[in-house]
Design brief:
The complex is a heterodimer of chains A (about 120) and B (about 270). Chain A has about 120 residues and is mostly helical. In chain A, helix 2 runs parallel beside helix 4 and helix 3 runs antiparallel to helix 4. The longest helix of chain A has about 50 residues. Chain B has about 270 residues and is α+β, with helices and mostly antiparallel strands. Chain B is about 65% helix and about 10% strand. Chain B is built from seven helices and five strands; from the N terminus they run ααααββαβαβαβ. In chain B, strand 3, helix 6 and strand 4 form a beta-alpha-beta unit. In chain B, helix 1 packs parallel to helix 4 and helix 4 packs across helix 5. Chain B is elongated, with a radius of gyration of 34 Å. Classes of the chains: A mainly alpha (about 120), B alpha+beta (about 270). Chains A and B meet through helix 4 of A and helix 4 and helix 6 of B.
Amino acid sequence: MTIRPLFAALAVLALAGCAADPAPNEQIRLTEQALEQARAVGANADEVPELKLAEEKFARAKSNMADESYKKARMRAEQAELDARLAEAKVLTLKSQEQLNVLDTRIKRLHKQLREDAQ
Amino acid sequence: MKHSHVLGGLLLVGLSGLYGCAGQRSEVALEQAGASFQKVKEDANVLRAAPKDVIRAGESLARADRLSTYWGSGEDVQHYAYLSQRYSEIAREHSNQVLNEERAAKLELERQRLQLALRESKLLSVQQQGKWLEEQIMAMATTQTDRGLVMTLGDVLFDTGEAELKNSANRVVLKIVQFLQLNPKRVVRIEGYTDSTGGKQENLKLSRDRAQAVADVLVDLGIDEKRIQVEGYGDEYPVDVNATERGRAQNRRVEIVFSDEKGQLGAAR
C-alpha cells in the first residue's frame, strides 16, 4: 500500500525528466558561437567579468551534457550565451567610447591651434 | 506506519522550507528583471537601437511571470528572470554604442571642418610671412644621411624650454604635409633632441614633447597617425659641441627622418 504511490511518483518524475528535456545540442552550438564572437571583438575573461561568468557556466553546461542532465545543461548554456553577448556588447561600447575620446582630444587640439594661428 | 507519517511530515516541512527560500529569491529576481525591462522599454534610444533585444527581454519576463504561478518552479522563474535581465542589459549596451557612434560621426565632420580651416589659416599666415620665412626654410637643411632622408627643424621654431611649435613653423609643417600627401607610402620618424643643459630626465621629456608636438600638427593637418613614429633622445647624439651657445642651439632640434618610397624606415637609434 505504501509502495504504490512511491512508484507512481517515481514514474511521473522519470516521465517529466524524459519528456521535457532532450539534449540541447543547438543551444550548446549557439553559446559556443557567442563566446567566440565575444573573444573576436577582443573581450578576455580577466577584464570582462561577464565573459568569465560565461566561460564558467559553459564549462558546467558541458559537464551537465556529459552527465545527461540536459535541463541543467540547457539553462546554463542559455545563461552563458547571454553573458557572452553582454560581454561582447560591453567591449564594443567601450571601443566606441574610446573612439569618441580620441576625436574629442583632436578637436580640442585643432581649436587650440586655430586660436594660436589667429594671433 | 507511524514512522513513515513522521518522516513524510518532516519531508513536507523541509520541502516547503526550501520552496519558501527559492520562492523569495525568484520573486526578487522577477522584480529586478521587471524594473530593468520597464526602463529599457521606455527609453526611445534603446528601442531604436536594439528592438529585438527589448522584445526578448519582454518575452523572457512574461515567461518567468507565468511560471511563477506554478508551485515549485522557483528555479525556472529565476532562470527566465535572469535571461530577461541580460537582454535588457544587452539592449542598453547596444543603445550606448549606437549613440556613441552617432556622436562620433558628427565629431568626425567637425574635425574635418576644423582641419580645413587650420590648413587655410596656415597657408594664409605663410603668405603673410613671405620673404623672411623663405630664408628660414633655406636654413633648414634636408640631408641624405645613412639613416635616410632627414629634415632638421631648428631651435628657432620653439620657444625656449617649451614644446609648442611657433607659428613660424607653419611653412615647413605644410611642406612636410604636402610631401607626405604626394608620397602616401612614406612614413616618418620624428626625433627630438636637446642640448646638455638641464637634467637628463627633463631633457628626455622635452625632446619627446617637442617631437610629439610636431607629430600632433601633422595629424591635425590630415596625416594618418599610423605613419608617424615619435622618439625623444634628450641630449644624446649632439651634432655640435655643447660648450658654446651656437653649438647648443644646433643641438636643440627636431629631426624628421623620412622612409623610402616603399615605407621602409631605418631602425630607430
